[in-house]
Specification:
384 residues, alpha/beta, Aspartate Aminotransferase, domain 2, Aspartate Aminotransferase, domain 1, 7-stranded mixed β-sheet, 14 strands, 42% helix
Length: 384
């Protein structure tokens, strides 16, 4: 009997039936009153999730496209930025900046650790000439299962001329990110993780300080030109958005944002926290070890060290093909050394119970003997 596959990866994540149904309707035209009302509702609910009064721009794009958009709209060739990397996606942000001719000073942290904010402060304090125009960093690093302290870094840039630009592609809608209160100038994210929609949409919030940087930017941009999108939202031009949007995806995302608002951000954050703590408890019950330090372990995804002598890629394949549950492996030099369990977006206690039942069986099938049910019992102690 074929069952619905359970996807517990960093992204894409499972899609609520409400969202699927909304996207399954017949297409509408994007230059109509009907779409205009949908888009305006999308914009307002994006502000709610971003926790901002700023305009939030929407693109047909992957999250990486939104990262590129932040670079080309905020800087000019030769501008210096401090790029903080705690994993694969921090590296990507730095590489994008280098690609466009920025002078990148990179602060790299061992994979499995979060950035030490004091190290950031020391670098910025040494920059007495103010050459560093911005700090660019990832909020939640899915490659390592680590969350950075954005609030603390924001205190270093908030009342200065420097920008703080944050990749919140996996965190927004799952972790608290107070864009305005923490002084984050540009936040970029994608639709396919905690925002509970399919891949294909990206969003960016832009502060007033960032709009001033936009005016000074000389890097080439056409599709990514923030100003074109802003004019539409402010109704300075009739085309909003400026190009043909991903209509069905936007309709689906609008529905997902309604669901987040109905649950309430505080409840969403608490749900993600409980799922993460339950996952950590399940991992420990199996005699396994978290990859990152527990105090910086993500509430979006849990990274776990592969047990000694076990081919974790075979375990993942068994889970997927035999038990219809898909989790993620390690990236780059961590391939075969860790596995990652996603628990963000449209995920609940029953998903975790099913996932850990599959994990126990797959581990057992591949030579790692476990007391069946031990991890599920620990999960139920936390989630009820």
């Amino acid at each position: 009997m074929q069952k619905e596959k359970l996807l517990l990866t960093p992204g894409p994540t499972m899609i609520p039936s409400r969202v699927l149904e909304a996207m399954g309707r017949q297409i509408i035209h994007h230059r109509t009153k009907e779409f205009e009302e949908i888009f305006e509702g999308l914009e307002e609910n994006l502000k709610y999730v971003f926790q901002t009064k700023n305009i939030v721009l929407a693109f047909a794009s992957s999250g990486t496209g939104a990262m590129e958009s932040a670079i080309v709209n905020m800087f000019s060739p030769g501008d210096k930025v401090l790029a903080i990397s705690v994993g694969s996606f921090g590296d990507r942000f730095a590489d994008i900046a280098k690609t466009f001719g920025l002078n990148v000073e990179k602060l790299s942290v061992n994979w499995g650790e979060a950035v030490n904010v004091q190290d950031v402060k020391e670098i910025l304090d040494r920059d007495v000439k103010g050459e560093i125009k911005a700090v660019i960093m990832t909020h939640n690093e899915t490659s390592t299962g680590v969350t950075n302290d954005i609030e603390a870094v924001g205190k270093l840039t908030k009342n200065t001329d420097r920008l703080l630009i944050v990749d919140a592609i996996s965190s927004l809608g799952g972790l608290d990110l107070q864009t305005d209160n923490w002084g984050v100038d540009v936040v970029v994210t994608g639709s396919q993780k905690a925002l509970m929609a399919p891949p294909g949409l990206a969003f960016a919030s832009v502060s007033e300080k960032a709009w001033e940087a936009y005016k000074r930017s000389t890097l080439p941009k056409f599709y990514w030109d923030y100003g074109k999108y802003r004019k539409g939202i402010l109704k300075e031009v009739s085309e909003n958005p400026p190009y043909t949007p991903a209509i069905s995806l936007m309709i689906g995302q609008a529905e997902a944002l309604k669901m987040i608002k109905e649950e309430g951000l505080a409840n969403v954050f608490e749900r993600h926290k409980k799922l993460a703590l339950a996952t950590q408890a399940g991992v420990k019950a199996l005699g396994l070890e978290l990859f990152p330090k527990e105090e910086v372990s993500s509430y979006i995804i849990t990274a776990v060290k592969a047990p000694e002598g076990i081919d974790i890629e075979k375990v993942r394949k068994t889970m997927q093909l035999k038990y219809d549950v898909q989790i993620a492996g390690g990236q780059k030099h961590l391939k075969g050394k860790i596995f990652r369990i996603g628990h963000c977006g449209y995920t609940d206690r029953f998903d975790l119970i099913r996932a850990f039942s599959a994990l126990e069986s797959a581990l057992d099938d591949n030579g790692y003997k476990v007391d069946k049910g031990v991890s599920v019992r620990e999960i139920q102690k936390i989630l009820g």
